[in-house]
Amino acid sequence: MAEEIVYGINAVTEALRGKRKAFELFISGPMDERRMERIIKLARERGVSVRQRQKQDLTRLAGSDHHQGVALKVEPFPYSELEDIIAATAGDADSLLLLLDSVQDPANLGSLARSAACAGASGIVITKDRSVGVTPSVERVSAGAVETLPVARVTNLVQALEQLKEAGFWIYGLADDASATIYSQKFCGKVALLVGSEGEGIRPLVRKACDVVLSIPIHGGVSSLNAAVAGSIALFEVVRQRSAGSAG
Questions:
Q1: Which CATH architecture best describes the domain 4-74?
Q2: What are phi and psi of 70, to 5 degrees?
Q3: I need a surface site. Which of 49, 89, 96, 198 has the fewest CB within 10 A?
Q4: CATH class of 82-247
């Protein structure tokens, strides 16, 4: 079985709380430090062996010096099927999904995953081609958030959008040149927010398959937002509207 290394305090903590099979926990530095104690306790509760290692050993193991003194050997990230995500949201009239069209930067995927989890999204859909998958770097940037919600990889995003529409989702794409804005749109029912790639944005055929295309108003000298920032703003506009609606 292939294995990978998850590293960083939050990423390792969430991986140990998640469903992935874990094999070994590696620690550098004092094992009685409070955060390490919690991680070691989680590992031992799951029957995962704990090994002390030098800091440079963890750097080599993780392929990064941002491991914060902890790394975990686990099975590869288990992707979900789109059909399973759709089935899980069947009874939720206010489901929220995040869709990503060819996002290639691990930092953007990690940041978006963290925002989606904090916004209460039911899942993330990414493309198999020309996209970054859930890597240890994505895990670290997301602070382990990718362990808390399903991520599906699809070959044909347009077909996936049609499946979501059939399941009652409205597809809202984000594009700089759209005339309507996220603040003029009332987000009702099942919402799927679609964020395009860094630089190219949403591909033409994918954009054509969206129900609505929206922009985020920008003031100042910069012409566009980072993909992760744009997606996060849109996610929390949906949250804001729904919170305001429930309060009213």
A1: 2-Layer Sandwich (3.30)
A2: -150, 140
A3: 49
A4: alpha beta
